[in-house]
Design brief:
With 410 residues, the protein is α+β, with helices and mostly antiparallel strands. The protein has helices spanning 24-33, 55-70, 116-129, 139-142, 159-164, 180-183, 190-198, 215-228, 232-241, 296-307, 314-321, 383-386, 390-409, and strands at residues 4-6, 76-82, 88-94, 110-111, 148-149, 152-153, 267-268, 276-277, 293-294, 324-325, 336-337, 342-345, 351-359, 362-368, 374-379. The protein is globular, with a radius of gyration of 20 Å.
């Protein structure tokens, strides 16, 4: 089997190392916190080469994509890589439709999962720049009486705490259930998700530590709606998606369960069961924490534009990229989290600013560097769907991160 490299005839819009030791914490926490918000596989074709001189780099990325399919068991993998000169390379491996054997579409649409958080944080920070929101103001100021529970007091949780994952709010995802097929067609109002979290009680004191919680970003979305008086999807579209020309990215409408553009099918498995098609899904279970639909190229474009100052003012970008240590589930030692943004050391000595995302059917990871490189890798199942043993889940998820490192560094 081999992976296919697709080289555009002209540069496209702006845009993982030998695998390190497996890191158990990264995947166990990612599957829990990010998933949902946490057979014969043919590969799409032979490796093709573009211009001479860089085939070794392309081989490394192609082999990594192929390994995600052949060794880790993902139905398909797709990636977009951009170098410092703005040249974009697309890769596909595996099968886009296990029933028909259709090829993986180049730069196909996928559910972005928690990559959505970076765009959500950007919208909030734009409002900060406009003087409509203050980062160190309690969420109670904007959503009075809403954030209440056992040990939970909205007057003690700041907007910064929410975007930084230091709020102490529990993650509602744990209350959604283990079988993705039982909730795939359920519509959740954002307040429903918040209620699932608040009834659990506080996880810890605000500001005491870092702990990933999708609940933080549901509240961030509600904050945007309260301050602007407009639907969150409209704000993220008008403020980020359209200005950056992310033509393959969109905010699904209420009740919309399919994917609009060309896409590989996404797969999931109920506990102990084989993979099944779960492409059709109501993403309201993720809302402002993970509902977005996008492509690898568009994610590269967003993270590159963000670092280039096209999305936020200098003061707000500095706030977003100022990190606290990620104390659990880090993809690499030294990983930090800013405001909706991971900062991860790469094997070549630079930092990747980006995010990851998991929602039933799709897993993604990627970002950009300050010197103009970007890479995003997507798979068409969660690591927890293609592996049952915890160590294998850890390995599969780590390999997605590893491939991003290879794509950026080699």
């Amino acid at each position: 089997m081999s992976a296919r490299l697709h080289t555009p005839s002209v540069p496209s819009v702006p845009g993982a190392p030998d695998r390190p030791k497996r890191r158990r914490g990264r995947v166990l926490s990612a599957v829990a916190a990010l998933a949902v918000l946490g057979g014969g596989l043919a590969v799409s074709g032979s490796l093709a080469y573009g211009s001479p001189g860089d085939s070794g780099h392309r081989d490394a990325v192609g082999r990594g994509a192929e390994d995600l399919v052949r060794k880790d068991g993902f139905p398909a993998a797709l990636a977009a890589v951009e170098d410092r000169d703005g040249r974009v390379r697309d890769y596909t491996a595996g099968t886009g439709d296990l029933e028909t054997g259709a090829a993986v579409p180049v730069n196909g649409q996928v559910r972005a999962g928690s990559n959505t958080k970076s765009l959500t944080a950007a919208v909030v920070l734009q409002l900060v720049g406009e003087g409509k929101v203050k980062l160190d103001e309690p969420i109670e100021t904007y959503l009075p009486g809403l954030v209440r529970g056992d040990g939970i007091d909205g007057s003690r949780i700041t907007v910064r705490n929410l975007l930084q994952h230091t709020s102490g709010l529990p993650d509602y995802v744990q209350s959604l259930g283990m079988d993705p097929f039982e909730i795939r067609d359920t519509y959740y109002n954002p307040r429903d998700l918040l209620d699932l979290a608040l009834r659990q009680g506080a996880a810890f004191e605000p500001g005491a530590k870092w702990q990933y919680s999708n609940t933080n970003y549901v509240l961030a979305g509600l904050l945007v709606e309260k301050v602007t008086g407009r639907p969150f999807g409209e704000e993220i579209t008008n403020r980020v998606i359209e200005p950056l020309g992310l033509t393959d990215t969109y905010w699904p409408g209420t009740g919309e369960r399919g994917l609009r553009g060309e896409h590989p099918k996404g797969y999931a498995a109920a506990p102990g069961a084989p993979l099944k098609d779960i492409t059709r899904l109501d993403p309201s279970q993720a809302w402002a924490a993970g509902q977005l639909v996008t492509t690898p190229r568009d994610l590269n474009r967003f993270f590159s534009a963000l670092l280039d100052g096209e999305v936020l003012g200098a003061a707000e970008l500095k706030e977003m990229t100022t990190t606290v240590p990620v104390t659990e589930g880090a993809p690499a030692p030294g990983t930090g989290y800013g405001l909706g943004l991971f900062s991860t050391p790469l094997s070549c000595g630079t930092e990747l600013y980006g995010h990851g995302g998991s929602i039933h059917g799709y897993e993604t990871y990627g970002g950009a560097t300050k010197d103009g490189r970007a890479a995003t890798v997507a798979t068409t199942a969660l690591s927890s769907s293609v592996a049952a043993d915890p160590e294998d889940i850890v390995a599969a998820h780590q390999h997605v991160y590893d491939l991003v490192d290879t794509a950026v560094c080699q």
